[in-house]
Each structure stands twice: as structure tokens, then as C-alpha cells.
């Protein structure tokens, strides 16, 4: 059989592309190298609890907001979504003082203006920019939307410079940046669009998913198969077969060749190009350009498994910065943990949670020495590194969560190496290729490649995060279906 589209990778982007194309009547086969689909949506089980790999919360899911329309299209709205507090979807701790970020534009301004009354007009200007960016999402990934030549110039503007020019109070700038451990706050490179779009979605509304992100992946896979498509696991692609400047098949590790009219890769672009070993269509200059693009920082995650009745559930996120600037995103190897995202798992019932996740940025350089080792065979030094960072993370969180340490029953950790091994994420990068506002045309990749029937998708292109990857999936499919209007037919 020759499929209309073979998709490499069953992360969020790959599954969404499979769903969109199957919805349009295409024959689709999704190939996942691991035993479990979902990528960073995966959940796993320890101590009788279900733990999330990389999915913790989303924004803009309320009716009339962008993710609501998108998730309605994918049949995801009836999952057990749990809305965070409107009065404070997040608390940001800066130098020991806590500031609240509230849902809704006016409430957001009023809440922060209570702490920074002299900055009310500046906050209104800030929220106005976020609303403008958020209202532009449907046009973001059209061909003229990047780099400044079209209607959307925000990709070519610096988020850091915008905050410095708009918000006069330095502490308020840090507070407004404080809920942004969902992106890499690199002062030199982060595009204003990325910063504004993600923060805008959380101000609209913020949600957790009771039971874990795997439900999203499983629902998308079920939608693909219900429309006649195929989703296969343990199907690692090792080569793209090319003839006359087009990909004709993908070759799996066991030697099987799956024939395809089109191929979409949800894998890292550099990995995708490595599957084209003898291609004349891919020139060395293009290959170098893609493979040399830097990746964003990874994450170290400490999963705290807690005894029943010990840790009250908090229906908000907690971001802690102790002696550190949010705009110093990737610590040097060996640096102590001084920033955290604290995420509380929604309990199935009652007021106590059984799992709290602590996330802090971690450089690939800190684990690169073990990159050629296998899971469970990395030695004492690696275990000691994880134990030290877990203890530092737990101790920092405990300063703001009294009694936390006494309630810990078990600790499970993951490093960028763990993410690489279990989710296929290149170097364990949390947000894919680093987008650079100084050079958006080079660092914000499009779905197109030098081979006309080989396309890219996922967080390594223009946008990351659940909303960004979802919009990117539509942009990828638009290249096959005749345009964005055709790809999003029946969506808006």
C-alpha cells in the first residue's frame, strides 16, 4: 500500500497532522519509534500514581478562545479539564515577595496595579499589546507573517527590549516575565511574538488536565484510526528513500519500507536531514544551516510523590525566583537551583494532592558526559547529580510550602537525557530550536524542505507549546491541502 502521507513521530504535532489529513480523507500512517505515543504528552506510573512527562497546563481554552476552537476540532474538549483560579492562575515569588497574576485583562491589570500603582497605564499598554498579538493568531503562520516584511513584525522584535521600553519598574518587569518558564527567556533572542502569544493565552484562562497529557495523545490517535488511518509504535525510521528528488518511502529499523506520496516529520529537523544520507536535493549549505541552529535549554524535573493528606492542592501555579533574574534562563553546569515552576497535580477527589512537580532549567552540557550511556547504566556520578538537584529543588519549594518535606514519600527525577531517551527530544530541549528575533528568517523554520513532498512540523518550527504546535500542524497540512483556509475548513 502507498499512503497519501506517512508521518514520522507521534508527538503532538505528528498526531495532529495525522488527524487533520485523515479528516480530509487522506490515507495516513503515523510511525512512532517508541513503545508509547505522545512525546512530551506521555504519562508514566510510579508508586501507584500517574505522572506527567512534560505537560502541565495550557491557556486559552475557554469558549471563544483559540485553543477552545482548536480542541473542539480535535475532539478534546470533553477531557477532564480543570480551570485554575481566576484571582491568581499563578503566583510569582521575586526576592521573597509573592505577586499574583490574574485571569482576564482588567483583573490582571487591577491585581498588579495594587502592587505597582504608578505603573497602571504601562500595564494597560502591555495588556493591549498581548491582546493585539493574541487576536492575530489565525494569520500568524501565513507565508507573509514572519520576519517583518508582512503584517506581523513581532517575530523580529525583542521581547526583552519591549518590556524595558514599556515597563519602567524593574521588579514589575521581572514579575511579568515570571510565569514564563514555559519558554526560554533569553534576553538576546526571544521574539516578542513568542512571549506575548503565550502569556496572552494564560491571561485568557489557564487549565490543568486531570489524569495527565497522555489522554490528548490517545484521543488524537483514536481519531486517526476512526478515520481509516494507522498509528504504529516500535517503528523507528532509519532512512528516507529518495528517487528523482522526492521521497518515495520510509525505511524502518527492521528493514520494512512504507511507501508514501508525502512524508511529514515531527522529529527534529537535524534528525530528519540525517535520514537523507545521499540526497542531491539537500545542499550542504542548507544541511549546515539547519544542523547548526542552537537548541533551547532543557529541564530538570523533580516529581514529589506525597503521602495522602499531607499536601493541600493549590489551584494555581507557583513560580519561584530566589536571587536570580528570569531572563537568565539556562544555568551554568553546577549552579545551584534558584528558580522553579511548582505544578500541583489535580486530585481525583478531596483537597490534597499526591504529586507536585518541580521544574527548573538545566543545560544539556550538564549531562552531555553521559549522552552515550543507557538508562539505568549511568553510574554514581549521574545519580549524585540528580540527587543534589532534587534536594535543592525540594528545599527551595519547601520555603514557600510549609511541611512539604515531611510529606514526601518518594522522589522521581528526570534530566534532559531522560527526555531525549523517552520522548525523542533532541538534546532534551524543552522548546525546540532557539528562535532568534535578530534573525527570524533563519531560525523560524517553515514546513517546507528542499524535497517538495517532505515537510516538517512540531515545536522546532515557528512556534512551541500546545497552542503553537497545534497552529504549526495546520500550517504543515495547509501546504498539502492547498492553503490555510482549506486546512482549517470547519475550524473557526
Walk me through what this model shows.
β3 (43-46) and β4 (49-52) form a beta hairpin. The chain is globular. The two termini are 34 Å apart. 31% of the residues lie in helices and 22% in strands. The longest helix has 20 residues, at 379-398. Strands 1, 2, 10, 11, 12, 13 and 21 form a seven-stranded mixed beta sheet that branches. A seven-stranded mixed beta sheet has the order 8-7-16-17-19-14-20, with helices on both faces. A three-stranded antiparallel beta sheet has the order 5-9-6. α1 packs parallel to α14 (465-481) and α3 (105-113) runs antiparallel to α4 (120-134). With 492 residues, it is an alpha+beta fold.
In DSSP terms (H or I, runs of 4 or more residues), the helix count works out at: 15
Shape, principal axes of CA atoms? globular
Query: First CA to last CA: what distance?
Result: 34 Å
Oligomer: single chain
How many strands? 21
What are the low-pLDDT stretches, counting only 5+ consecutive residues below 50?
A: 145-151
Strand content: 15-25%
User: On the 0-100 scale, what is the average pLDDT?
Assistant: 92
Structural class: alpha+beta
Radius of gyration: 22 Å
Give the biggest beta sheet: 7 strands, mixed
Query: Share of helix among residues?
Result: 25-40%
Amino acid at each position: 500500500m502507498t499512503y497519501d502521507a506517512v508521518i514520522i513521530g507521534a508527538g503532538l504535532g505528528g498526531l495532529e497532522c495525522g488527524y487533520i489529513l485523515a479528516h480530509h480523507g487522506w490515507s495516513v500512517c503515523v510511525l512512532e519509534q517508541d513503545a508509547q505515543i505522545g512525546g512530551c504528552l506521555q504519562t508514566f506510573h510510579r508508586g501507584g500514581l500517574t505522572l506527567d512527562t512534560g505537560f502541565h497546563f495550557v491557556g486559552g481554552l475557554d469558549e471563544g478562545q483559540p485553543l477552545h476552537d482548536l480542541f473542539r476540532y480535535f475532539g478534546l474538549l470533553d477531557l477532564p479539564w480543570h480551570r485554575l483560579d481566576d484571582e491568581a492562575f499563578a503566583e510569582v515569588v521575586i526576592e521573597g515577595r509573592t505577586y499574583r497574576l490574574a485571569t482576564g485583562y482588567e483583573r490582571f491589570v487591577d491585581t498588579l496595579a495594587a502592587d505597582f500603582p504608578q505603573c497602571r497605564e504601562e500595564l494597560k499598554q502591555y495588556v493591549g499589546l498581548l491582546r493585539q498579538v493574541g487576536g492575530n493568531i489565525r494569520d500568524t503562520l501565513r507565508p507573509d507573517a514572519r520576519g517583518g516584511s508582512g503584517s506581523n513584525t513581532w517575530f523580529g522584535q525583542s521581547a526583552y527590549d519591549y518590556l524595558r521600553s514599556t515597563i519602567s519598574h524593574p521588579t514589575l518587569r521581572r514579575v511579568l516575565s515570571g510565569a514564563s518558564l514555559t519558554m526560554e527567556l533569553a534576553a538576546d533572542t526571544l521574539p516578542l511574538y513568542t512571549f506575548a502569544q503565550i502569556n496572552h493565552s494564560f491571561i485568557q484562562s489557564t487549565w490543568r488536565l486531570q489524569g495527565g497529557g497522555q489522554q490528548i495523545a490517545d484521543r488524537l490517535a483514536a481519531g486517526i484510526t476512526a478515520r481509516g488511518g494507522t498509528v504504529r509504535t516500535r517503528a523507528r525510521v532509519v532512512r528516507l528513500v529518495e528517487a528523482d528528488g522526492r521521497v518515495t518511502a520510509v525505511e524502518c529499523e527492521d528493514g520494512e519500507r512504507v511507501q508514501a506520496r508525502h512524508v511529514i516529520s515531527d522529529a527534529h529537523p537535524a534528525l530528519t536531514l540525517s535520514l537523507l544520507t545521499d540526497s542531491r536535493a539537500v545542499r550542504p549549505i542548507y544541511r549546515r544551516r539547519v544542523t547548526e541552529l542552537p537548541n533551547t535549554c532543557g529541564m530538570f524535573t523533580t516529581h514529589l510523590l506525597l503521602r495522602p493528606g499531607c499536601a493541600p492542592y493549590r489551584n494555581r501555579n507557583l513560580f519561584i525566583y530566589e536571587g536570580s533574574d528570569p531572563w537568565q534562563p539556562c544555568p551554568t553546569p553546577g549552579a545551584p537551583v534558584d528558580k522553579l515552576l511548582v505544578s500541583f497535580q489535580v486530585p481525583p477527589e478531596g483537597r490534597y494532592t499526591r504529586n507536585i512537580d518541580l521544574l527548573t532549567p538545566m543545560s544539556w552540557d550538564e549531562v552531555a558526559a553521559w549522552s552515550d550511556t543507557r538508562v539505568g547504566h549511568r553510574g554514581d556520578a549521574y545519580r549524585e547529580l540528580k540527587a543534589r538537584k532534587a534536594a535543592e529543588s525540594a528545599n527551595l519549594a519547601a520555603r514557600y510550602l510549609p511541611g512539604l518535606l515531611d510529606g514526601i514519600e518518594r522522589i522521581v527525577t528526570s534530566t534532559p537525557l531522560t527526555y531525549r531517551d523517552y520522548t525523542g527530544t533532541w538534546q532534551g530541549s524543552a522548546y525546540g530550536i532557539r528562535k532568534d528575533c535578530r534573525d527570524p528568517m533563519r531560525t523560524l523554520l517553515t514546513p517546507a524542505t528542499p524535497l517538495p513532498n517532505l515537510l516538517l512540523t512540531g515545536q522546532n518550527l515557528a512556534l512551541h507549546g500546545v497552542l503553537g504546535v497545534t497552529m504549526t500542524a495546520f500550517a504543515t497540512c495547509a501546504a498539502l491541502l492547498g492553503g490555510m483556509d482549506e486546512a482549517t475548513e470547519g475550524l473557526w
